[in-house]
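May I ask for an example protein's residues together with how it folds?

___
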Amino acid sequence: MKLLILDAGHCLSLALVRLASRRGDIELVMEPGLELSPGRLAEVAPDALVIPPMAQPISAEPAAVQAHAEAVESCLSACIEVGVPLVWCVSDQLYEDGHETAIDEHVIPAPRDESLRRLITTGDRIREGFPRHLIVRLGPLFALDGGHAWLGELLERLMAGEEVRAAEDVIFCPTSADAAAMALLGMLQQQHCGAEAWGAYHLAGTEPVSAYTFASLVRTQLETRLEGLGESVALGPIKALNHHHDQPLRRVLNCRRVLEAFGVHQKPWRLEVGLMLDAWCKARQEVEA
């Protein structure tokens, strides 16, 4: 199976590269940005085109959101012309107002923010114009490296002694980039073998948590590991922010459909964080050795 991956420096793209390098049945072709002509798509002739998500679109500049939407729609046109399936990953932030219960996969986001609505328009065009698509809604991705690698950036700030501010009243399911990559490859392998299970799917980690609690747990686990290595580092503090004073905003994705269609289980984010911290500490020791 051959895949064309856009935005090569994105943390999800790098996770796909790591996973594919350990397998002999997947070929990846990487493009640095989101620009893609029908000619280039036809030249590569992949079994699918994968577009990583725009991180935190809710706080991005409107021009950046507009540019992302236009790039995705240009890719859609190329996919229609060449006949290549499109995989577009999107942030759970499109569910701007959240929901009291887990959000089912058939629920199309209806944000109030104009920029976010522009991304919904793109999703509508994909659904209406090209049946062979996957729209994969992801929880906040975390990884050690790559663009928008939340965990890597968090570790850098903590090690530098900087204060980290994180919302205490926004609840979501953090998603390991490695776990998301594994799930995507599994889904696409089944599609490649004739599953024809196109449509929208949710993919997130288990156990809803706030950004503040996530960051606090990372800090505690990092401190414990550093102490075990005999290091004494004054890590930066974590400060809780509150934006929704009446009640927490819950942005929790129900991932039942991806389990039923592809047998993909959600990965526990605490386990994934632990594995990444172990890898980070090992790399740190090797550098200092």
User: Anything to note?
Assistant: The first strand starts at residue 2 and ends at 5. The radius of gyration is 19 Å. The first helix runs from residue 11 to 21. The CA atoms of residues 142 and 151 lie 5 Å apart.
